[in-house]
Amino acid sequence: MSQPLDRRSVLKLAGGTAAATAGGWLWQAAPAGAATSPPSPADAPGALDTVVFGDQGSEAAHGLVAKDSDVLTGGLGQPARVLKPLETPGFFGGTVTVTLACRPTGPTYVTIKLWGGDAGEDLGRLHLLAEGKQVGHYHLGAVDPLDIAGREPRTPGRFYFHTLPLPPELTAGKTSLTLEIRSMGWIPVYAGTPDTYFRALTRPSRGIYRLYTHQQPHFDLGADDLTGSIAGTPVRTTPGREVLDTIDARVAARVRSELNRTSVQGNLDYLDVLARAYDLPYTEAHQNPAVVAQIVQSVDNHYRRHLADPAVIQGNWMGAGIVAQFLLQLKDALISRLDAPLTGEPAVLSNPGFDDGHGYPTGWRGNTWTGSGTATRDATVKRGDGASAKITVPSAGVVGLVPHSRIPIGPGAHTYSAWIRTENVSADGAYLDVLFYDAAGKVIGAEKKVFAAAGTHEWEQVTTSLDTPVGAVAVEMQVRLKGPGTAWFDDLTLTPPAGAGYEPVIRRDAWRRMLLDSREYWRRNRRSYTNQTMIVDLGIYLADRGLEVLGAAEAWGEKRARRYLYEAVGLTPWLGPEDERGTPSRPLGGSYYQVTKKGLTKELGYVGSYGEVQGWLRLIHEVVTVFGGVRDDRLRDHLVKIAKTRGYFHHPALDADGYRTMRLEALTGWRDPLYPGKRVYDQAQSWEGQPMQLAALLKDPDLIAQTRQAIADNQLFSILLEAHNAANSAVVDRNLLSVRRDYEVITTARAGKRLLPMTPGQPDLVFADEENAVVAVKHGDEILYVSLYWRARWGVNRLARIHHLTPDGIERSGTVWQEVEVIGDGRAHTEPDWVNWEFSVGADAPIPPGGFPPPGEPVHQAFAGQKLPLAAAPPDVPASGVGEETPYVGRAAFYRCQYGPYLIAMNTTGNRRYTFTTEGFGPSVNLVTGAQVRDDAKLTVPPQTTIVLRRR
Questions:
Q1: SS (H, E, C) 677-725
Q2: More confident residue, 15 or 238
């Protein structure tokens, strides 16, 4: 059982060990041996020691030993070392080892200096070892690698600095220590085997310029330490509006391809392209009946796949939700087809009159056995409504149409017929061909041909009655033309014998079963991370809306179904998976919200790339309001709030070509292993959407203004072109489909005057979210992001993540120690001896605890054995085990973090007050209130409040 939050459980931090006491647990507030008050600004503001790589004197003074390494002249003409792949490339490459000074008491930090213009994941990673032990983890550890190379340069034209803390136990009593930088290949994160997870290093690492040790999280650089600068931020000149034409051409080609498909579409995302294009006047699919036919046959096939393999629904977080989306989008067009037999049912022909199609009739494919000719759908010649199939052979050959799937058939005499019209056809030229197949797909017996009259004549019905051969389980009715001329075919029929006993499944019943299976499975298997919750709960909502369209008795109704969306977006508490009766499990208690009061998604602290959920917000509004016809101003306003809050975490940067842009704040995102963040203004280009969609849909003036900011920086077209060139996939095509429409909305709708908050020239600000324990500060053109609740999965780890950008172009990031107070539950987690982290890619993935062990000799974790206290969960939260990730166990009640000129104090509780001192920090300004604060002030932090001081 979880313990109540009483005073006896408060933990106070002062070091790396924990001890049981009568009143609970005592946790030291700084590394062992450190002073109880923070160091003064004048206390060793520079580095303790520095090695300059490529400088012979500096390297010799620090006892450098290099293996598989070269010296080069790199950024700004500075010397550097690269670490090379081994002669036989493997995961690990070259290394450098040096001896640097450290503090015998208190914290010691290590910072690396790297050139921000380097780019490419094949540059691999750089990891730090201290005294032979690995410092931190390969993937998503609170202490990460020294460097993770990315696809784009992090800081073009200048250097950047990344800082790691050393365990205090490692440096206790020492004045120097041995540090090793080890190069390694790329880790693709989601790989399911060691061979695909640990990629070989195939090219030299990025250049390593300097390595520093220092005693404060932030240290002053020496006068000789060149950093580079932002000399100006020009605006991109290319590409321009021509990108819209390029995208239009791609969209048109995709729509045309899907309209002319001769087989079912197994990827429902491509059907989504058609369904959306159905309402877009600038596409061939606009109000085109072929869209409806393709969706019907493909969804019928999806139902059969679901019956054969539950993973079809259970392996997709939206389940069959997209099927229900089609029912909402195309309700009027689909309703007349719901009471027909399912495609592929026994003795049921698919598109027998060739009425459905666009170019080719849906469900049929052309085939040429000999010679040459054409087979098409002809809407000008037909027996009644719709169309016919037209086959033309110029001189010689056999050409025809073959159904994409065979028809199940039983025993007895069945009657087969077709109507045929001819023009200049030779004897035995136009005919219906009937073929029988066994269970192995082999033809049984001879084909049965039924010929139309020769010459030129109007519609003639040809008919034959055939006994199903022994062993035959399926039949195929083909239409063919042999020799010169033209023939039209229409209204094929297959008539079973009396009493055959066929009971075809009706489409309404089949789709109902599929949607009900989807809804019921996923409401019992809801996810807890916010972006995943949005996907799953959107699927639940859609499945029920689809059941409602089908008239199913099991449909809850829109209002009840919308409750799942309310939980997913944080309008009401998230109650977790349900049992069969609908009783929620409340795994996180009865008052856990998926989105903070200030509008950030929640997992374990600030979420970077996975927190960019604007694409899912757009889809939620679409299915509720645009497709579903339900107006919900409360929901809409909440979606706008979430989207606007993300703007605090889009900061000014340079793109890969050195032009000004805005980027997602990824370095403090707890699930982000790739840096820098994407170029993003109001909405990121992603699998879920493109940059204009949400703003164009909601038409909020501020979101419109932020999208226009991307146009003003001429980044929008570049981002869209990058998406166009990146992949040939259904989701990319679906997102690009609305670009033309969205651009017209963005450039003509009413726009506000508020640019993204972090844009240069915008007002100073402090944004603090106490639920996620994250802070964003803009002071002039200086920006600071701090994630105080940093990757603390299994206990309070006393580590904060910072990302600091200054107007002079210096960019720093890293993990630093901080002081915390914890309301504990009396338990502690012991940091395991893992160098990797278990990131499961599926229930069946054979991933051992701690993840795949790296190749080569075992290496041990420098932080292993540290005790992390478990914060108490609310009383109604079910008990969790030690070492089990929850949103509660690693969250401190109070944080005090000092970095450079900033001192941040945050109270995350709802009913306590904390007091802290500024002694040793120096005179400062409260950036929230503007008040002057003296050096020795004692300040009280009320519940759910943050104070940010900046030294004067």
A1: CCEECCCECECCECCCHHHHHHCCHHHHHHHHHHHHCCCHHHHHHHHHH
A2: 238
Which of 35, 39, 38, 48 is closest to 102 using CA atoms?
48
Tens-digit pLDDT profile for residues 318-335: 999 999 999 999 999 999
Q: How far is Cα 441 from Cα 406, in angstroms, rounded to an integer?
A: 10
Q: Are 418 and 449 in contact (CB under 8 A)?
A: no
Residue 427: how many other CB atoms lie within 10 Å: 10
**Domain 357-495, CATH class in plain words:** mainly beta
Query: CA-to-CA distance for 617 and 688, rounded, in angstroms?
Result: 10
Residue 312 has phi, psi (to 5 degrees) of -60, -35
Across 873-905, b (16+ Cβ under 10 Å) vs e yields beeebeebeeeeebbbbbbbbbbbbbbbbbbbb
Residue predicted with more confidence, 5 or 244: 244
Global pTM?
Answer: 0.91
Measured CA distances, 657 to 153, 235, 458, 717, 723 (Å): 9, 10, 67, 14, 17
pLDDT higher than threshold 70 for residue 908: yes
Q: What six digits make up the tokens of 844? A: 């069946």
The Cβ of residue 429 has, within 10 Å, a number of other Cβ atoms equal to 25
pLDDT tens digits, residue range 562-621?
999 999 999 999 999 999 999 999 999 999 999 999 999 999 999 999 999 999 999 999
- From the list 791, 867, 866, the residue with the least C-alpha distance to 828 is 867
CATH architecture, domain 49-214: Sandwich (2.60)
User: Residue 465 CB: number of other CB atoms within 10 A?
Assistant: 11
HSE-up (13 A, CA, CB side) for residue 507: 24
| HSE-CB of 280 using CA atoms within 13 angstroms | 23
Q: Residue 309's closest CA among 514, 71, 562? A: 514
What is the 3-state secondary structure of 144-199?
CCCEECCCCCCCCCEEEEEEEECCHHHHCCCCEEEEEEEEECCCCCCCCCHHHHCC
Do residues 694 and 618 lie in contact, with contact meaning Cβ atoms separated by under 8 Å?
Answer: yes
**Residue type for 838, please?**
E
With tokens 């309001």, the residue in question is: 625
Q: Please report the sign of the dihedral spanned by the C-alpha atoms of residue 7, residue 8, residue 9, residue 12.
A: positive
Q: What whole-number distance in Å separates Cα of residue 664 and Cα of residue 676?
A: 8
One fold for both 49-214 and 357-495? yes
What is the arithmetic mean of pLDDT over 245-267?
93
Q: Would you tell me how many other CB atoms lie within 10 Å of the CB of residue 187? A: 25
Domain boundaries, the chain: 7-37+763-831+866-951, 49-214, 259-342+505-573+587-593, 357-495, 595-761
Secondary structure string (H, E, C) spanning 856-867: CCCCCECCCCCE
449: its two tokens: 């041909």
Q: Give pLDDT tens digits for 279-320.
A: 999 999 999 999 999 999 999 999 999 999 999 999 999 999
